[in-house]
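Onboarding guide, step 5: your first structure request.
Type a short instruction followed by the sequence, for example:

Predict the 3D structure of this protein.
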Amino acid sequence: MRVAKDLVAASATPMVLGILAEGESYGYAILRRINELSGGELDWTEGLLYPLLHRLERLGYVESSWQSVTGERRRKYYRITDTGLAELAEQRRQWDTVVATLKEIWVGSGDFRPFGAIPMGGQA
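The system replies with structure tokens like these:
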């Protein structure tokens, strides 16, 4: 199962900011971390990540610098800024609200019913 593009797009900013809050990183490592944390369900491409990183940089949420490691090619490393940490806190607050609301809708008072058990009229 793959996660819908709309959900990927909506969650991309807080995911990247959250990863960078753990410490600076470069593009390929961010892609690997997303894949690892999602158990392979989120298989992002460079075409998704790099435009997002550039946008976050323009917004002042991240800063970048080129670094060289002996025996490896130069990499552009990204780190979260104080403004980015504040944005991450706001994004987390918003996502906490969305997740809590979905849990209430889907589970209610702890009596989970499969979607198939919901009548067509939407009434339980």
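Each response can be followed by summary notes, for example: The mean pLDDT is 89.
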